């Protein structure tokens, strides 16, 4: 079997040109990430020191803040010089993504948090990785059609200050 690769791109490939409104969208996302990280840091500490408590207080909020602050639409899916697809990361490095993807695995160890707080943490991790994936898959649509802005609004909703009524309601429904 013979594999024929597409020709290499010319050296005069134009530099990346930002989408209309991109700086504002990225600034909004970074600010939403800072607010989400502050909310995570405000969660109650574990009653006794344990690794997941330290992780929730340090690594997770740092990852959320780093991911939302490093979003880069230029890091989208594209063709490499050899003609093969290069999967973009939306500007979020593999280590940060890894930290966000383990949230569902570690929440069972955070038994001092309410079910509402668990759900919100899952939402934060999912939204953060989702925004990066949106930018990697189709940055123009994500920016121009307000998808990133809507996801940032959802992130803000997930990290609103705790409502004591919600925790009480969740406890009664379990």
Describe the structure in your own words.
It is built from nine helices and two strands, in the order αααββαααααα. The chain is mainly alpha-helical. The longest helix has 23 residues, at 115-137. The radius of gyration is 19 Å and the shape is globular. The N and C termini lie far apart (59 Å).
List the main descriptive attributes of the protein structure presented here.
single chain, 174 residues, mainly alpha, two-stranded antiparallel ribbon, 9 helices, globular, disordered C terminus
Topology:
Blueprint: H1 22-42, H2 51-57, H3 59-69, E1 78-79, E2 85-86, H4 94-101, H5 103-106, H6 115-137, H7 139-144, H8 147-158, H9 164-173
Antiparallel strand pairs: 1-2
Structural class estimated from helices and strands: mainly alpha
Query: Based on the structure, what is the oligomeric state of the protein chains?
Result: single chain
Large-scale geometry: globular
Relative helix content:
55-70%
- Tally of alpha and pi helices: 9
Reading the helices and strands in chain order gives HHHEEHHHHHH
How large, in whole angstroms, is the Cα Rg?
19 Å
Q: Mind describing the biggest β-sheet?
A: 2 strands, antiparallel
Number of strands: 2
Mean pLDDT, rounded to whole units? 87
- Strands of the widest sheet, in order across it, are 1-2
